[in-house]
Structures are given as structure tokens and as C-alpha cells.
Amino acid sequence: MTRTIRKVVVWSALAALAVGLTFFGWRAQTTALASSKQRGPGQAVPILPSPHIPYVGAPHAAYNSLPPTSGPHVPQTIAPGVYRQQVPDEIQVHALEHGHVLIQYGPGVPRADVRMLEQVGRLHLNDVVVAPYRQLGGTVALTAFGQLERLDRADRGSVEAFVVTFAGRYNHGWRR
Amino acid sequence: MAAGQLAPPSPGRDRERQPAAAAPAGPVVTATTPDGTTVALGPASRLTLPRLSVVPQGEEFLLGDRGTGVFIAVPEVGVLAVRALDGRATLAEATAAVSEQVGQPVDVPAFAAVLAETGLVVAVDGRPLTPDRPVRRPSPLDRIPERLLRPFFSWPAWVLYGLLLAGSLALVVTVPRFRPTFEDFFFYPNPALCILGVITVNTLLSGGHELAHYLAARAAGVGGRFAISLRWYFPVFETELTELWAVPRRKRYSPLLAGMAFDSVVLAGCLTLRLAWSAGLVEPPLLLVRLAALVALTRLFVLTFQTMVFLRTDLYAVLVTALGNYNLHRVSRLNVRRWTFGLTPEEKAELADAHPRDRLVAPWFGLLILAGILLATWFFVRVFVPSTFVMGGWMLATTTSAPAHTGAFWQGLMIGVLVLFRGFAPLLVMAWQRLRQAVRGGSTEVAT
């Protein structure tokens, strides 16, 4: 076999491999989005179309819950952890889409309760975002993709139950 | 991403390096130096050699000029020949002396020609061969006394580094919540700050990794040189440690592994901070806790990258040192080309002349290279190209829809610059390497 023919054969094999990888990757992703289920603490919220929007503050369809549980979101997400500044809604949705739980509290929540919520965040380092949310007043909101629980007062048992039930349940498709 | 590089001794033409049993010196031999100068060597020629290091390696010896970083492997008789070529003896006198020592005729002029061709001859009959020998310039770091550095690379220190790495790996494997994820890149709810943070962290830590190589080399009594290089389409910083060929093999491991030791210490520090914060033992700023996750992620990535020996990583250099190879990667690549595209006549000759130890190991290392090509193809198709498209689309959508006076517009531009940099960085590094080679006027240092 001449070098030219060998080159054509080898490059063709590599190109076929690349096309195959792309196709199976795309198929795996679309298959993952095919089913859904919602049960557990809190209430299920209808899932909105969730397209990417270019930036925080760009015009988009309204969310159907406060804080949001699905809908338009920006391409960037946010690392799980404890924050002391509000996370924009458009970023929150992307974190929910990755299977994370958001624990958010209003400015009226007592400092001791905030510390307890942050403690939950420390124990679930890779699953939870804890942050303030101005519009919540004196309440606490727990959100997962398509799921919301509002608490009039921070109750550790409820918070833990929500986190354990919903963390990782969804990640660009239902996992369990 | 980074790699401490131990460039191989001069490749190929192994047979010519050995002063072979032959007729006594008489005829003139010619040699072409690395910068293209042709020089005639006759029986009356006197050679001036640079100060050469001589290090035993198995049954051979490594001869080299630490100033230029040129090293060759020779048999014992080569060492005798070099000692005879002391600048005073003519080639005929050196031939007679070496032949008498080994008890048979030795072709010293042919060996002298090889020395000239590899750049290990400074002058012939007092006439400089290469007036501008590119000698490594001293660095301000060379002023740090070796005795201050040695404790950091002593055996107790290495035990500590090993324990830190083992402990870190045990933690991330057994406790999932301490396992870094790609989301750690988004440590702040502002993408522009995240991008700046990632670039800053990577640049600083890559510098630390390379500095560790350099300082460990200094502790071993040799120098290095910082450079930028390419591992396929990955641009990397690197420290060229070619001078390590001038020290015994057991002393080479510390400089080669020092970068990974640095990464292990940083990784362990970040994980310890996260562990202590999670347990409520410390109360650092929350941003620092998240940055620690980002740093741990990058260090784990870098340490994993080092296991990809087919990309000539630090562990490749360790492997080559342990196996006693010289130019394993090049010989293995020639093997792979032989299996796939076929070889040109020049490549066939190069492979045939490769060191027997390289030829012995090359077939299985070639399989690793093939596996690496598949992995790199997968990464390119599944990660590099899609993420470039996503970021490019993000940049276009943002810059075309956000008003120019908003932060979002400038974030979009920054993302665009990053996309362009990612795409063009390999080409820029390639152009830089070509330019550097052209300015140096030929290869006096064997690049990998």
C-alpha cells in the first residue's frame, strides 16, 4: 500500500470515529431528556421551556415561581457553595438544571437561622447553593428543578429532607 | 498545564558516535556543524572541546556540554577519546594514545567528526567553529544557594509530598462532596470575573509548577530554562532540564517530579481548607473557600494530565529516566508512522539508527501513543469543539444583543477574546517555536 493510500485510510478512520462520537454523544443527551418525574417534599411546579439567553437581564419569558424553578437561563452556572450576595434568577435556573438545590432566605430571616442554613450548605458542599434572596421577606425557599418548597421558618429537618430528595435528581435530564 | 522537560541526547546515528575499530588516522574527514559550517579534520588537527560532563548510564556514558545542553551517549572508548582530545594532542596523537589504551585501532577522527556535527567542538586548530554558541543565560534564581533549596527536595520532604498526594486522592475518591467538579470554574456569579480568576489562577500555579522544577534542578546542581511549548494542541509552559543528563540518574528524579510535588502540596492545602471549613473549624472568607475548590480542580486536572505520558509529560521524563531510554517518544512516533502512514526513506534510516533501548520499548509505547491519539480525538470532538461553539455563540448573542454601555456587552467581548485565544494559541506557540529556532540558527539543543 502506498503512503498516500495509507494516509487516506487512516484519516478516514479517524474522521469516522469523530462522527461516531459526536452522534452517540448527541443521542445520549436527547435520550436523557425524554422522561420526567416529580415527587417528594414541596410542590411540583410546571416546567417551562428552558432556552439559553445571552446575559443576565436579557429579555425573556416570565418565570412561573418565586424563586424560579425552570425557564430561560444564561450559559454560565454557579459553583455550589455558600454565598452572601443574591444569585441572579437566570443563573439560578442553570444551577437547578445541573441537579443542585438552592436554599434561599429573605432579609427578615434571623441570623441564627441563616447560620443553620449555611451549615447545611457546608455539609452538602457539591449539591447546594445557599444565598440570600431579597424578595422572600422573612421566609425560606428551597428549590430544585421543577420543585419548590416555601418555609415560614427555617426548619433543619425540612431543609435536609428536601436536599436529600432532590439533589442530583435532574441533570439535563431526569436521573431518578 | 506544564511539563518539566528532559530533552533527549542527540538522536540518531548511534553507530557513528562510537570510535570504531578501524585503520589508523590518516585521511581527512569532513563534518557539518549544527549551524551548517563544514569543517575538515586531518591527522594534524587539534580540537578544542567545551568542558564536558561525563556520566555513566548503564553500559554507556553520557557526554555533554551543560552550557549548550547538548548531550550524546557513547561507549567507554568514547570517554577515552574525549580525554585524549585535550586541545594539545593532534588527532593522530589522540588516535595513537586511545588505540594503545584499548589494544586495537580506534577511528578517533570519525568520532571527532560526530562531536563536531553535534556541536560538541568549540574550535579546530584555534579557529572557533560556532562564534556565537547559544549558551544558557544565568537566571537571577541561580543566586539562591543550593543548600537552602536541598531540604525541600530531601527524602523526608518527598515522603511528605507523597503522603499529601495520597491523602488528597483518598479524600476525593471516598468522600464525593470534596470531589471538585467543572462547576467550580464558576466560583462567582459573574462570568467575566470567573474567566479572569481562572486565567490568573492557572497562570500563577503553572508558574509555581515550573519554578519547582527549576529550583529542584538547582538543588541538584544544574540549571534549567523556561519555555512555552505544544503538546499536540495543548499549549504548555515547560522547564527545559536538559542539563540533568549531566548528573547521575538517581539525581534526576527530584527535578522531574518537583512540579507534581508542588501541585500535590497546593491540592492538599485547598482540600484541607475545604475540609476544615466544612467541619466548622475555620471561618475564611467564603470566596476563598470557593477559590480553593477551583484551585483543587485545576491541580487535579494537571496531575491527571501528567499521567498521559504519550504527551511527553513529567511522568514521561520519569519513565524515560527509569527505563534508561534516550529518545523514546520520537522513536515510538516513527514506529506508529510505520504502522499507519508508512515511513519516508529518511525516517526509515532514523528508526534503524535509533538507540537499541529505544527501539526495544518503542512498540508498546507506540500503542500508548495510539491510545493517546484516540483520547485526544475524543477530547477535541466532544469537548474542545462543542465548548468553542457554545462560547462563540454566547459571545455573538451577547455582543449583538446587549447595549455597548452594559457590563454584559464587555463580558461577551471578553469571552470572545478567550475563544480566539483558545483557538489560536496552538498556532501562536508553533509560530513562536519556529521563530526561536530560526533566530538560534539551527538546533544546538535537542527539542522534544
Biggest sheet layout of chain B:
3 strands, mixed
Domains of chain A, number: 1
Order of helices and strands of chain B: EHEEEEEEHHHEEHHHEEHHHHHHH
What is the CATH first-level class name of chain A? Alpha Beta
State the end-to-end CA separation of chain A.
53 Å
What does this structure look like?
The complex is a heterodimer of chains A (176) and B (448). With 176 residues, chain A is α/β, with parallel strands linked by helices. Chain A has a single domain, classed as Glutaredoxin (3-Layer(aba) Sandwich), CATH 3.40.30. Chain A is built from four helices and six strands, in the order αββαβαβββα. Chain A has a six-stranded mixed beta sheet with strand order 1-6-5-3-4-2. The longest helix of chain A has 30 residues. The radius of gyration of chain A is 21 Å and the shape is elongated. The N and C termini of chain A lie far apart (53 Å). About 5% of the residues of chain A have low confidence. Chain B has 448 residues and is mainly α. Helices cover 55% and strands 11% of the residues of chain B. Chain B has 14 helices and eleven strands. A three-stranded mixed beta sheet of chain B has the order 1-11-10. A three-stranded antiparallel beta sheet of chain B has the order 4-8-9, with no helix packed on it. In chain B, a hairpin with a 4-residue loop joins strand 6 and strand 7. Chain B is elongated and about 80 Å long. The C terminus of chain B is likely disordered. Chains A and B meet through helix 1, strand 2 and helix 3 of A and helix 8, helix 9, helix 13 and helix 14 of B.
